[in-house]
Every structure is written in C-alpha cells, then in structure tokens.
Amino acid sequence: MKQHAYIAGVGMTRFGKHPDRDLKSLAAEAVQAALADAGPAVGAPEIAYVGTAGAGAITGQTCVPGQVVLRAMGLGGIPVVNVENACATGATAFHQAASMVTLGAYDAVLVLGMDKLHHPDRQRTLDLLTGAIDVADREAVMADVAASIRAAGLTPDTADAGRTRSLFMDIYVAWAAAHMQAHGTTRAQFAAVSAKNATHGSLNPRAQYRDRLSVDEVLAAREVAWPLTLPMCSPIGDGAAALVLVSARRMRQMHERNRPVRVLASCLSGGGAPGRPPLAVTTAAAAYDAAGIGPDDLSCAEIHDASAPSEVLLYEQLGFCSAGAGGDFVEAGHSALGGRLPVNTSGGLLRKGHPIGATGCAQIVELTEQLRGETGARQVEGARLALAENGGGYLDDDSAAMVVSVLAREARAA
C-alpha cells in the first residue's frame, strides 16, 4: 500500500507590514502555533525544511536562515534544509517534506516558510523580485515582454519596470493583454477577481488587507500599468507559516487529536523549456494523476494570484474551466464562496499578502483548515478535496518553478 504524509499541525502569522519584528519573531509565532496545533503526541520534529526567498537580500541573513530561527526558539540540533525557489519557495519546502515522509525517511517533519520583504530602501525589494528572471539577459527578457505587449495591440512602456514597480507587473500586463485580445476578456472581469478575493480576505483575520472592494472600486483605483490597477497586483509583505507533517503511523498515535488531512499528491516542476505547454498545465496533470482525481472533484483551491489576470489564466490551465473561459468563470461567481469551486478563500495573494517564502505554506494552512471545517465565515461547506498551486520566477514566458499539491480530508488516518 502506498504511504502518505499527513498534515498534523498548522500555524501562521498575520501577513502585512511588521517593521518591529524580525524573522525569528515571525517564525517563532508560526512554528509554535503549528506544534501546539499538532499536540505533544507528535513528538519533536526529526528534520525541518525552511523556505525563504528574501532573507539574504532584505535582512542580510544568508546561508543558514533556518538554523538561526529554529535555534532561537529551542529547536536547534535537528537537520535543517534551507529552500529557495522563487515564489514557489514555501510550496517547494512542503513538497520536499511530504516526499521524505512518503518515502518513509521520517515520521515527523517541520515545514516553515518565512520572509520580511518591507525595507526602508524600496529598491532593495524591487531588486530581489528582479532576481527571479535571468538577470544576465535582462534587456532581452524585457524586450520580449515589450514585444508581447505590442503584439497584443498595446503600446509597451516598460521603462519603470523594476524601478518604480516590480517588473513582474509588466509580465502580467503582457499575459493580460494577450488573453483580452484572444478571448475578449474584459478589464472588469480581471477586476472581478480582485473584488472576489477582497470579499474572501475580509473574512480572514490573518489577511494583510481586509477591506471589501467592488468591481467599480477596483477599476477606479490607481493604475499601475494598464490594464492593471493597484488592487489587481499582489502586495509585498512580512510573515511566516508553518506545518507539521507526519507519517500514518504517527498520525494514528495522536488519538483524539487525529484530524487527518492527507497529502494525496505534491508535484514539483521546473520551467525553461520553450515550446511545451504551460507549466501549470503539466504540473496539474501530474498531480491529478498521482492523486487519482480530476479538477471536477475539487472542493476548493488556493492558487498563485500574483495578479488578477494570473488567476484568470490559472482557472484555465488547472482545468477549472475551458480555455478562454476564465473571465466568464469569475464573472459568473463560480470561484466565489458558494460557487462551483471557491478559489482563494484566504483572500489569495492579492489580499492575504505575499511574503514570498511563506506564501506556499500559507496556502496549505488555509486548505488544511478548510478540510477540517475550521475557517468560520469563509468555510466551504463539505470541503473534501483541495488543490494548492504555487508558481514563481520567469523563464521563456512561463513560470520557472511550480508546485501543485492535492489534499484530502479523511475520517481517520489509515
């Protein structure tokens, strides 16, 4: 019988601007919450996988960030694997941990994602984000982005990319414009993603932004780069999220605390191969196959809405709707609470925030709580199967790294 990893405990901080807190403080809050949630029967973690994308560039803590923060909270002496994989950092740490438990190497593993992205020198943060492309070929990359924008019928203006705004916003402009040209997707449909996620985020006490927005308010907000307004772009943030993964054997020992959420699949892929289907398509296909399900079986999903157009494209690439129908999917309310497939019930990156290293772990926290029935006003009724998609970086007009994971609620661990 195939072995599976189980999520025994979850914890996270509120995402946002935390100028008076360091990585040790944020990490300790998330880890202590996850360990308390799992309970003492889990025992001490045997190994930790710690993800951070910005610690070196923003805080100066290079090489051993995981060892430093865990030692500060009394968890020194265990093996630590530090993970950096663009915006897919947290999900990659989760993938590695789940794989090791599934292989039988460990019975209890800690996963931590953390980052502080706010810095008095904003250029330092922008340079960190720029580092997620091929910086040795930056001029050619931006020329290709400008050409894509021009091909979609817009006049590119990428002079401020990486200077006054993240250059990824210009990449999202290119993707949005191409989708509008090919499928008739409207700016209001992109705005509907932001409005929907604002409603979800208003119900999440750990979200960076909790105000509700209408489609009209999203459209009237400050323009970042047409067609994107500010609420259509994910904000940077500070925060941490942690998970405790255990084997089936250890889960059975938890007795009354046994609230099994099983990892049916976690698939990691890399970009940089021109001419193949989008990375989200192939990674999701591998995850669905490994889990033995299809997109129609899902109860809810957390996906990488680094921009509102990104969410629309991912609806299609993950199989939630047909190609070109993403705008109609959100406009019809299918991805809202109460809809056919609620997406980003946490508020997503757009409203929950995006401390890069923590994002993938935070997605798993949200879905675990959904499958346990613990999310209060944003609860998806009868949630049974959930998908997380976390992608990052940019190579050859696609993500450079991606993880798609499928989780399931069970009556008891088997």
UniProtKB/TrEMBL annotation:
Can you give the residue ranges of the Thiolase N-terminal domain? 6-208
Q: Which domain of life does the UniProt lineage start with? A: Bacteria
Give one Pfam hit by family name.
Answer: Thiolase_C_1
Q: Which residues form the Thiolase C-terminal domain?
A: 281-401
Q: Which CDD domains match?
A: SCP-x_thiolase
Q: Which residues form a coiled coil?
A: none
The record ties this protein, via PANTHER family, to: ACETYL-COA C-ACETYLTRANSFERASE, NON-SPECIFIC LIPID-TRANSFER PROTEIN-LIKE 2
This one is known as Thiolase family protein
Organism encoding this protein: Spectribacter hydrogenoxidans
